[in-house]
Amino acid sequence: MTEQDLTVRGVSDTARWVAYFRALETRRPDALFRDPYAERLAGEHGFQIANTLPDGNKHEWAWVARTYLFDQFLSRAVQGGADLVVNLAAGLDARPYRMNLPAILRWVEVDLPDIVAYKEEILANEKPRCRLERVSLDLSDVAARRELFARLDTRATKIVVACEGLLIYFATEEVASLAKDLAAGKHFESWVIDLASPGQLRLMQRTTGRQLSEAGAAFKFGPPEGANFFTPYGWEPNDVQGMLKTAAQFKRAPAELLALLPEPKGNPGNYPWTGVCLLKRR
Fold first, then answer.
1. Where are the domains of the chain?
2. What's the CATH class of domain 60-281?
3. 8 Å CB contact between 230 and 260
4. Which residues contact 31 (CB under 8 A, 6 or more apart)?
5. Vertex 160 angle, CA 144 and 183, to 5°
6. Phi then psi for 147, rounded to 5 degrees?
7. Rounded to whole angstroms, how far apart are CA atoms 190 and 45?
8. Is the overall model pTM greater than 0.85, yes or no?
9. Per-chain mean pLDDT for the chain
10. What are phi and psi of 190, to 5 degrees?
11. Cα separation of 74 and 57, whole Å?
12. At 183, which helix (H) or strand (E)?
């Protein structure tokens, strides 16, 4: 493989990178989650990305904490009666296959056609634990996504949306537009997102973000308001969990970062913070 082949060629390749970290966690005897599909989904290219990008392996703790927190929030939503999970920019997520889910639950994954096709090829012989559907769609196509949201709104009574590793690639006005589109749905009740502070965003832009930017996957979104950014657009923060705090709880955080604990209360601002947030529709 050439040097170019070993690096991120576009935003879809970041999904292989994430799958690589899920594969590493799965190998641990004390794994916080088990994803037996992650290694196949990451493929050779996913392993090469992590070991070629500057600091590509440095923040394994954050990816693991993020996956764990999304698992927890989504599990609670399903246990609380959610009858449809909508995973926007689902990437190579394998939750419909690996989580303990009711067979009657509907789960809709939305992503670009190339990654949907790749995922269907890799998992062709596997059976999801719930009623899984995939939709090929570019979420930047506002008219198409509004049509999709309106259609999904008629198919369930309690919908939870997941956006894992998506919003950071959107400009502020694009995030606001997406938030308003989701809030317009009568049955879209909760939304799970990950978020970076402005300080963390700048740090990421100076490191791994440089190469990702060259591949058309620039980091953009880190609101100074934190999770409160979403309030004017129809969503209230319900539960916010920091990734470093979570990683430290399970002995995944690097020793040199423990000095950053405890995390600041309120909006983190210039503090280097990342977290997972549960939003509820107002």
1. 60-281
2. alpha beta
3. no
4. 25
5. 55
6. -65, -45
7. 34
8. yes
9. 91
10. -145, 160
11. 27
12. helix 172-183
